[in-house]
Amino acid sequence: MKENFLRPPHGFAEYAADALRVIGVLSVIAAAIWSTPTDAGILALALPALMVPRILGMRAWMDITVGLTVLVAAGSNVFDLYRSVAGWDLVVHFVCTGVIAATGYLILARTGVVPAQRDTAFRKRTPIVITAAVGLAVSALWEMIEWAGRTFVTSEIFVTYEDTIGDMAIGGLGAVFAGVILAFFPLERSDAH
Fold first, then answer.
1. pLDDT tens digits for 78-113?
2. Sign of torsion over alpha carbons 7, 19, 51, 188
3. Which of 88, 101, 109, 189 is the most buried (most CB within 10 A)?
4. From CA 41, how far away is CA 66, in angstroms rounded?
5. Domain extents for the chain?
6. Per-residue b/e over 41-62, b at no fewer than 16 CB within 10 Å?
7. C-beta separation of 174 from 93 below 8 A
8. How far apart are CA 120 and CA 137, in angstroms?
9. pTM of full prediction above 0.85
10. Would you tell me how many other CB atoms lie within 10 Å of the CB of residue 11?
């Protein structure tokens, strides 16, 4: 995995994925200087998710998908899009939970918990079931973080029972969709270590 992270980018798409990582770091710095500590913290939560695709050796298109999704999700919070754009919250939960669940599957495969996509033991149903479980777990964790943020940091964070259940349900659907993609399309580069 260290080889994947240190490998120089090849081609425009891999440079674009690395540019998204730079944008993520710069956005945290910018928020720390010109915005609030809460905004900087929200953007900083995206940084690990921006780095993991490179560490795993994801294909450039998936690396870009993860990077854009995570940056949009964090930025939407900073720019209050979840409250100002109707339905935006559900779109982001669907896509973001899906890409995080797919990434989670690849992490589990890399650690030998589930079969890798190119493994002979790989079955198409496996990523669908596993990403659904990972997606629902990630959704629950995210909703707990939102609750803790509202309870202990700021009452500006929007949390209601209906919102929580809706977010988790749509996130679970996004994770199932990601599992279907994993079942049919390889997400790691063929030379990934």
1. 998 988 999 999 999 999 999 999 999 999 999 999
2. negative
3. 101
4. 19
5. 2-184
6. ebbbebbebbebbbbbbbbbeb
7. yes
8. 27
9. yes
10. 8
